[in-house]
Amino acid sequence: MIKQSRCGCRRAIGVRLTLKIVEAALTRTIKTRPPVKKEQPLIYHQPARETAFDRPRDFLGNRFVYAVISARAGGLSLGVNMNPDQRCNFDCVYCEVDRRTPARETKLVVDAMAQELRRAIIAVQQGQLRTRPWYQSLPEELLKLRHVALSGDGEPTLAANFIEAVQAVVRVRALGGFFKIVLITNGTGLDQPQVLRGLEYLTNSDEIWIKLDGGTQAFIDQVNRSDVPLEKILANILLIGRQRPVIIQSLFPAIQGEEPPFDEIKEYAQRLKELKDAGAQISLVQIYSAARPGVNAGCGHLPLRVLSQIVQTVRQTAGIRAEVF
Ligand code: SF4
User: Fold this and answer.
1) Does residue 3 belong to any structural domain of this protein?
2) Residue 154: CB within 6 Å of ligand 1?
3) Strand 207-211, strand 246-251: pairing
4) Mean pLDDT across 52-61
5) What is the CATH number of the domain that holds 27?
6) How far apart are CA 85 and CA 152, in angstroms?
7) Residues near 159 by beta carbon (within 8 Å), at least 6 away in sequence
8) Which residue in 273, 49, 40, 18 sits closest to 144, CA to CA?
9) In sequence order, which residues have a C-beta less than 8 Å from that of residue 247 and are 6 or more positions away?
10) Is residue 288 included in any domain, yes or no?
11) Which of 111, 121, 256, 304 is deepest in the core (most CB within 10 A)?
12) Global pTM?
């Protein structure tokens, strides 16, 4: 999220605008994207472009810890690759992980990860990222550490050593100064005992971002391509959302040039309303589209017009804060 303060809406808008201006200034469009006219098909092949927010993760020479400039983080995020083996129980149509090539590592080595994280945080604090060519032109605002994300090449709650990894990251924080921890998850494992135990190490300042990419089983089947039913994902959002505020992440891609049907968006907004009515605290819904090239060539970016309509539908139907990222 851009700004964590739930009462700082104006400030959040200001920061978001700043980041959007910065992002526009940083955009180096190699091939100009044509303006979308009503009669044009949706963009589904990404034009070659490079912006601060579209750049791939930078592993900084590490095995498990990487840096990424993220619109949803509002700047620099250090990520822990919780699933170097690429294990996931989803097969999202927009996934950027190429599972056709062998993984670089087969498992998360927690001690090595903690050392890398400590070094990466010191490097950020001492401004060492600036010595790497790509970061030299980035404004200071984008190089402040926003959070450490438990994320990576698969579903983090499936990591065999989930608890140990969370404990290690919390220890690094205790030794090296506070940073926010964000668990980025598809929600399917949030009811597992070892995951619930791991979440006990998080503070109120930490966040859980949970994926919800649609409102009907048929649409989820098309986008997330998983055996895990939508019902379970919703139940897990409710389970955690009743205990602490959660952020919902919803990626709507153009699939073969088609935007999601409006009936689906209405169903999706209705699921969010039902969660809220049942007691889930949803502090923000992040709406976005496929940005970096994925493995699936038929999957692409939706125009801002469509994403804005989804945001409006969520706000009107569910009365929940929603933003395009
Ligand atoms: S949940 Fe994440 S890692 Fe798993 S397939 Fe979807 S995008 Fe890829």
Assistant:
1) no
2) yes
3) parallel
4) 83
5) 3.20.20.70
6) 10
7) 82, 83, 87, 108, 165
8) 18
9) 1, 207, 208, 209, 210, 282, 283, 284, 285, 286
10) yes
11) 121
12) 0.86
